[in-house]
Design brief:
Elements: E1 9-13, H1 19-28, E2 32-37, E3 40-44, H2 47-56, E4 62-71, H3 81-90, E5 103-110, H4 118-136, E6 142-143, E7 150-156, E8 160-166, H5 188-197, H6 200-203, E9 207-210, H7 217-226, H8 247-265, E10 271-276, H9 279-291, E11 301-305, E12 322-326, H10 337-354, E13 359-364, H11 367-370, E14 375-385, E15 388-397, H12 406-409, H13 421-441, E16 445-450, E17 458-463, E18 466-472, H14 480-498, E19 505-510, E20 528-533, E21 536-541, H15 555-564, E22 569-573, H16 579-586, E23 591-596, H17 599-611, E24 623-627, H18 630-636, E25 641-646, E26 651-652, E27 661-662, H19 663-676, E28 678-688, H20 697-702, E29 704-707, E30 725-730
Parallel strand pairs: 5-6, 5-7, 9-10, 9-12, 10-11, 12-13, 18-19, 22-23, 22-25, 23-24, 25-28
Antiparallel strand pairs: 1-3, 1-4, 2-3, 4-8, 7-8, 13-15, 14-15, 16-17, 17-18, 20-21, 26-27, 28-30, 29-30
Amino acid sequence: MNSPQRLSTYWVTCADGLELLLEEEITLLGATHIERRTGRLIFKGTLETAYRICLWSRLASRVVMPIYEHELEHTHDVRDVAEELFEGAVNFDWSLIFAPQSTFAIRLHVERDIKVNTQFATLRVKDGVVDSFMDTVGKRPSIDIKQPEITLYVLAGKTSHFYCLDLSGDSLHKRGYRHYMTDAPIKENLAAAILHKAQIATLKPDLILDPMCGSGTFIIESLMILTDRAPGLTRRFGFNGWHGHDHDLWTQIKSEATARHEAALNQPLPQIHAYDADWDAVKATRLNLVAAGFEPILHQIKIEERTLADWPDFNLQAGQRAFVVTNPPYGERLGEKASNKALYMGISSRLQTFFPHQPVAVIAAQVEQADVLALNDPKTLRLMNGKLPIYVRLGEVKAAPVQQPFLQTWHAEPVEVEGAQDFVNRLQKNMTALKKWAVKEQVYCLRLYDADLPDFNVAVDLYGDRLHVQEYAPPKTIDPEKAKKRFNLALAAIRAVTGLNRDAIFIKTRAKQSGKTQYEKQSTASKRFVVREGNAQLLVNLTDYLDTGLFLDHRPIRLRIAEEVRGKHFLNMYSYTSTASVHAALAGAASTTSVDLSNTYLNWSKENFVLNGLTVDHADEQHLFFAADCFEWLKEGHEQYDMIFIDPPTFSNSKKFHGTFDVQRDHISLLKRAMNRLSSGGVVYFSNNYRGFEMDEEILAMFDVVEITASTIAPDFKRNQKIHRAWQIRHYGV
């Protein structure tokens, strides 16, 4: 066998999926005759090549040098693999590789389909090495599994076992700068691979942004590439205790790397922005940048606590290039898959607004999350972050579509529908009357028709560029066939007047609801869309439930809340999908608290929040969600709020609610409890849809109560003044 110093075969390991990129990289570092395996490359090279890969590879996991191959005489089914490994280890003179004064550790890897207890087999390899030393020099080295001076990499194969010296020592992804961690970080070499795939070195962006920077890995790896810093410049390696180590050669290579980095530091850097909603992440990024050696340029990097909803104006000039790269808090960092998808929708919206036509790279846990990103010519890179598969979506951001109310481009055209001409005329009249207002106020979701004519007992609501048509169930005295024919005529007229296709019109039958049925699913199709209201983007579901997730008649009160809530603590009772809370949060509320009995609606609420770039798991608990009975929640708590919105159901007997709730009967107790939680200068907005509701005299006497119904009925509901009633309630003496 050749001595270790003259061996010219090396292995470089990597995460699955990085083999091609790694091959490109080590070729540039001098490797030749490269043979590709899954998770491993075998190459020919000098010791200098191996040193350079250890120092400069941004993608590799380990560089190992095969020392000894133990060929097996037989490979029958019944094998004692652990004893084979011991035999191979004990039969080699390890004193040729390292001194008995050195500490060592064994890293055992086993090929597929080989059955062995890896813990016991590792122990037997160790025994073999120790026995070999005792036989040759009469001394034994010590084991150190945490910081060994020598690491032996052993591959248990089907026909041979390979014993290698791990030149890298610890995994090469450990650059030595990650002193402070956040949840679910990406490995450094994977971050570097993503940056390499995005061609950051040739792109030379004028601005780099990581809006969810975590512990700062992407920012630090970007800086390492842009400042020509060798990733292994300050870490220790596994060859220092090896007898064949060429100290002078290593010193020369390392000095050359130091000079390259110092020269590159004098070159102009792009604007670099690192944001996170978690202050601990911001702090970790700053400290890790210092640990990575970038303290001299720390003042050039903007590291700030910001949510997606809180991006500044980046002031990109015409012709300048930006690059956005991020590892959003998917999976372990956020929790719920539904919220994750909404988060990616929110990211996409932000990117389209701020960085159209700019390159991005975004990590996702599932392809479905990445699919919502609006990118031109998207490419997907599948990698393994430890045992967790991840998908990297790369591409150029599409420009944000021009948003305008549907009615802005709609014009009344001559339409004839036999048997439904009156309905056609009324629908056109309504839409014409609403057009000027909707365009001026930028109203995207509104009611176009609400049973205006007795023969056409439907409600027609516009959600963006889709229609939600509700048929009020006809009385039992009406012939079902006649009612069905009338409804089909209405649908034909709606399509003709609006010009919308069948797939943009969603139909439901609205019978009188009570008890449990008001919350039951109507469908399992789950047609969910994003619509705009004021500054908010909101998720609506036009198929699954009777209600869509957005009560259109409460639009004015939501916008009123947004105008008044800045700096205030906001409480939303019976919050449903928390659309009012979203408006409050976007308008600068000091905090929002949303309470509803339904976990389904609270999960929907969280989706609405992350869709708008607002955090739902923030450490400072700025936005809270409680699945609770509102009555009991108000009674048990003590926190005070500056603004409270209460929109209770008319009647409820939910399985989770002990007893029943009747708004007329129970509003006295409800409002008293709410007023106990209201700050001295605060306001309660109370609304309900019970047409026969009357505010109790006791409430009128106890508090400063002003009915504001007229100001909360928008033009699209003027034809139905009884859609709801609303009050403003304050403490007296304020």
